[in-house]
C-alpha cells in the first residue's frame, strides 16, 4: 500500500524530531512544531495508520512513537540530501592540500576528522591488490599433521593445519610447496589465479594425490586474494548513543565491527555499484542488527580503491553523513588525481 504525500511529510517530521531528541514522538509536538494547520485527530489517525503499515513503532514507556527501519529506508530514499559543515570542509581541505604526505596518511587523518566530527566509527576497507606472495613453508608438527605457513609482502602471515593420512601425501605436499616457491614468489595476490593455471599443470605431473593437494593447499592460497584489510577509527564513540546504552547491544555492535564478512559484503556492494558514490546499507540487509546502518563511499586513484564506511545507529542525520563522505570522495579525486 502506497502512503500519501501527507503521510510521507508527517513521517519525515517524526524521523527528524526523533533524530534530534532521541525521544519518542507524539502528535502534540508534531502539531506545535511542524503541522500547525492540521487537527490533532488527523495527525493521530495518520500516525496510527503509519504504525499499522510498519513505518512507526509504539514505545512502551510513553504515548509517542519511534521510526522503524522501514521508515528510515523511505527517508533515505525520499528526503536525505548531502549537507556538510563549512568548518569540517576547511579542516578536510587542509589535510588534502598537504602534498608532502602519503595518500595513506591523508586517508588516516581524514578518517579521524570525520569520525570526531560525527562521533561515529569510520572503517576503511582495502583489497590486497598490491600485496604479493613472499614464501610458503611446510612444517611437520605431528605424526599425521603438518602446518602450512603463507607469508605475504605486507607482513601478514596465515597458518593452516593439514591432516596427513599417508606418508606419500607429505612427500607430495613438499613437492607442491617447492613449486610454489619456485614459480609464485613475488606474484601479486590479484594475479594469482592466472599464474596458478601453469602451476596446477606442474603439480599434476609431479604428485600422486593431486585432488587432495588442490583442496588442502591450492584452494587455501586462492582464498588469500579475497581478503580485505580493515581499519576501524572511533569505535568507542558508540557508547555516547542511547541506542547502545545496553551492554549486550553495545557488545554486539563492537563484535560486528571486527567481523570481516560484513566488510566483504559492503566492499562487494560498492564494487558492483560502479559509480562509487555514497550508498546506505541497513543492518538487516547484511544479516546484522536492524539498529545499525552503514554509509559507504569509494576514494582512490585508478584501480587502487579504498572504501570508507561510517557505522551509526539508524537514528542519525543521513544528510550530514552523505555530505561528509561525498565531499571527501570528490575532494580526493579533484586534488590527488592532479599529482
What class, by secondary structure content? Answer: alpha+beta
- Radius of gyration equals 26 Å
Beta strand count: 10
Tell me, briefly, the overall form.
elongated
Short description:
The chain is an alpha+beta fold. It has helices at residues 5-21, 27-33, 40-52, 69-78, 86-96, 103-118, 167-183, 192-206, 210-222, 247-257, 260-273, 318-336; strands at residues 56-58, 65-67, 122-127, 133-140, 145-152, 157-163, 228-233, 279-282, 292-301, 304-313. A 5-stranded antiparallel beta sheet has the order 7-3-10-9-8, sandwiched between helices. A 3-stranded antiparallel beta sheet has the order 4-5-6, covered by helices on one side. It has a two-stranded antiparallel ribbon with strand order 1-2.
Secondary-structure map:
Elements: H1 5-21, H2 27-33, H3 40-52, E1 56-58, E2 65-67, H4 69-78, H5 86-96, H6 103-118, E3 122-127, E4 133-140, E5 145-152, E6 157-163, H7 167-183, H8 192-206, H9 210-222, E7 228-233, H10 247-257, H11 260-273, E8 279-282, E9 292-301, E10 304-313, H12 318-336
Antiparallel strand pairs: 1-2, 3-7, 3-10, 4-5, 5-6, 8-9, 9-10
Protein architecture, described:
- The chain is α+β, with helices and mostly antiparallel strands and 339 residues long.
- It folds into three domains: 5-78, Winged helix-like DNA-binding domain superfamily/Winged helix DNA-binding domain (Arc Repressor Mutant, subunit A, Orthogonal Bundle); 86-128 and 228-336, GAF domain (Beta-Lactamase, 2-Layer Sandwich); 133-226, Enolase-like, N-terminal domain (Enolase-like, domain 1).
- Helix content is 48%, strand content 19%.
- The protein has helices at 5-21, 27-33, 40-52, 69-78, 86-96, 103-118, 167-183, 192-206, 210-222, 247-257, 260-273, 318-336, and strands spanning 56-58, 65-67, 122-127, 133-140, 145-152, 157-163, 228-233, 279-282, 292-301, 304-313.
Amino acid at each position: 500500500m502506497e502512503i500519501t504525500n501527507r503521510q510521507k511529510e508527517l513521517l519525515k517530521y517524526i524521523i527528524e524530531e526523533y533524530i534530534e531528541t532521541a525521544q519518542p514522538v507524539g502528535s502534540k509536538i508534531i502539531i506545535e512544531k511542524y503541522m500547525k494547520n492540521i487537527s490533532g485527530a488527523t495527525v493521530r489517525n495518520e500516525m496510527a495508520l503509519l504504525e499499522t503499515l510498519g513505518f512507526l513503532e509504539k514505545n512502551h514507556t510513553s504515548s509517542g512513537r519511534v521510526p522503524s527501519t522501514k521508515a528510515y529506508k523511505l527517508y533515505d530514499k525520499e528526503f536525505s540530501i548531502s549537507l556538510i559543515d563549512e568548518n569540517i570542509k576547511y579542516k578536510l581541505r587542509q589535510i588534502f592540500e598537504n602534498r608532502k604526505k602519503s595518500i595513506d596518511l591523508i586517508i588516516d587523518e581524514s578518517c579521524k576528522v570525520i569520525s570526531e566530527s560525527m562521533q561515529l566509527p569510520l572503517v576503511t576497507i582495502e583489497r590486497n591488490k598490491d600485496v604479493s606472495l613472499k614464501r610458503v613453508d611446510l612444517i611437520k608438527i605431528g605424526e599425521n599433521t603438518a602446518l602450512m605457513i603463507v607469508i605475504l609482502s605486507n607482513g601478514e602471515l596465515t597458518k593452516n593445519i593439514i591432516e596427513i593420512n599417508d606418508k606419500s601425501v607429505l612427500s607430495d605436499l613438499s613437492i607442491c610447496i617447492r613449486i610454489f616457491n619456485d614459480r609464485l614468489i613475488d606474484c601479486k595476490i590479484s594475479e594469482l589465479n592466472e599464474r596458478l593455471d601453469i602451476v596446477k599443470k606442474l603439480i599434476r605431473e609431479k604428485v600422486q594425490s593431486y585432488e587432495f593437494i588442490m583442496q588442502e593447499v591450492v584452494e587455501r592460497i586462492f582464498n588469500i586474494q579475497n581478503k580485505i584489510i580493515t581499519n576501524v577509527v572511533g569505535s568507542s564513540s558508540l557508547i555516547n548513543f542511547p541506542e547502545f546504552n545496553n551492554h549486550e547491544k553495545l557488545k554486539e555492535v563492537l563484535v560486528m565491527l571486527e567481523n570481516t564478512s560484513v566488510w566483504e559484503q559492503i566492499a562487494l556492494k560498492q564494487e558492483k555499484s560502479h559509480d562509487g558514490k555514497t550508498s546506505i546499507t541497513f543492518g538487516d540487509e547484511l544479516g546484522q542488527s536492524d539498529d545499525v546502518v552503514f554509509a559507504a563511499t569509494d576514494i582512490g586513484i585508478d584501480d587502487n580503491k579504498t572504501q570508507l564506511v561510517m557505522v551509526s545507529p539508524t537514528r542519525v542525520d543521513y544528510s550530514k553523513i552523505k555530505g561528509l563522505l561525498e565531499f571527501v570522495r570528490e575532494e580526493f579525486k579533484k586534488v590527488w588525481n592532479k599529482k
